[in-house]
Write a sequence for this structure.
């Protein structure tokens, strides 16, 4: 059987894997795999393999366990599944990049699907911060209304589940209530991340919206157009990062919280080299 890294379709990999295991042992079966992978349905492998079911996010890791994949193989399989089942071009491009990096054994900017979703959509992290507000109601409809329905209650529910999987909140399975943990989202270097770029584009769009909808008592907009020496830019970037961290420390002291804000700091070039 060829290495998993040569596959472009995860269902083809599943077919080849099953045929190889069957050739090695006639006792190997879909039921045997289901038991090994801790799956409820003994026929789920076959349904997925034949294209009659999609592989759910929850069951991907169960499959990697049942398939006996190593760490990098499991990472490739996960990204291959999401790539094959992607719903739009941006999502497909993200997982294609992850597949290329995994093949090249370069994990500098490989994010999980959950990490990608938390960045590519602006509202999961905003919901996490909203959960710190005094009087917060952990109901998707209330959360969506708090953000003027810029996302739906269903999207809020999915975001809560996402935050739970990332360990950013702890959800009580009995009541559905949750609390924010002290954990932050750990990611690789995001300097060249497509997901981070989507996050910043979304925030720029929201800032543009705030210019028209919010008064000067709700927002602070300031701009500076200036000539620079390019050799001074690294230190300027460090100063901006220090200021961002200082503002984070400042706002952390302000309990009880009653609003969620976004701080964007942008320093970028306007001209080009002649």
């Amino acid at each position: 059987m060829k290495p998993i890294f040569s596959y472009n379709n995860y269902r083809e990999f599943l077919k080849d894997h099953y045929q190889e295991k069957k050739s090695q042992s006639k006792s190997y079966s879909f039921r045997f795999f289901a038991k090994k992978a801790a799956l409820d349905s003994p026929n789920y492998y076959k349904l997925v393999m034949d294209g009659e079911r999609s592989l759910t996010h929850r069951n991907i890791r169960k499959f990697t366990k049942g398939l006996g994949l190593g760490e990098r193989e499991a990472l490739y399989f996960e990204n291959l599944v999401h790539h094959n089942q992607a719903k739009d071009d941006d999502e497909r491009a993200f997982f294609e990049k992850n597949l290329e990096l995994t093949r090249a054994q370069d994990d500098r900017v490989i994010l999980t699907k959950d990490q990608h979703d938390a960045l590519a959509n602006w509202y999961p992290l905003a919901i996490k911060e909203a959960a710190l507000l005094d009087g917060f109601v952990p109901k998707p409809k209330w959360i969506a209304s708090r953000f003027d329905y810029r996302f739906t209650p269903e999207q809020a529910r999915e975001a809560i589940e996402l935050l739970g999987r990332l360990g950013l909140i702890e959800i009580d399975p009995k009541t559905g209530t949750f609390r924010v943990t002290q954990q932050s989202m750990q990611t690789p270097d995001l300097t060249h991340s497509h997901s981070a770029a989507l996050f910043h584009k979304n925030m720029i769009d929201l800032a543009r919206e705030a210019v028209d909808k919010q008064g000067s008592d709700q927002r602070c907009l300031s701009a500076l157009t200036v000539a620079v020496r390019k050799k001074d830019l690294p230190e300027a970037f460090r100063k901006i990062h220090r200021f961002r961290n200082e503002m984070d420390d400042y706002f952390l002291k302000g309990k009880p919280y009653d609003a969620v804000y976004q701080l964007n700091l942008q320093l970028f070039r306007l001209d080009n080299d002649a």
About this structure: Residues 207 and 264 are 8 Å apart (CA to CA).
